[in-house]
Specification:
Largest sheet: 4 strands, antiparallel
Radius of gyration: 23 Å
Distance between the termini: 65 Å
Structural class: alpha+beta
Number of strands: 7
Number of helices: 4
Helix content: 10-25%
Order of helices and strands: HHEHEHEEEEE
Length: about 170
Amino acid sequence: FQGSPRLRRGSLVLLGWDDRSGHGISKGSEYDDPPMRLIPIVLLILLATSCGNPLAKGLDAWADQPPGTVLPMTEVVTAEWDSLYIFGPYTGPDDIDAALGSHWDDPRASRLEMHDDAAMLLFVRKGEVVRALIQPRRPDMTGLARPEPYSRDEARFVCRVDGSGWIWADLAEG
């Protein structure tokens, strides 16, 4: 776009389609009309908020359900998995590797080591991590942390609210 007389510093450039003429363009288009400048920004915001982690959205929606609502993890995670590891605050990468029985080469492995604001859920299939989620403490899943995995059948959790209004996840019976 360098040297183009139509474009000047501070102009918004859109690739693909010139909305004013209805003709396709190859270099870009300048929009001086403020509402037209907002369209790409609004579209990006909508895209960013509509996308996201379906697992995190499922857990967040579950936390809004009445206490006692059971959530089978098989209904939230569509990927094939055979075990679920839940690691609590201050868990280091070496502890995660020891539990998995192999090295998990992912930057998220060190996320919990110096933080107490989340739990990490690792969904594993045949020894390989297929999904990972750092779950903020809503619902608080830190009480479910343990070095042994939960099986698919066992990975059913129930929502509980304590006297202070804190939302916890507990292992569902049966």
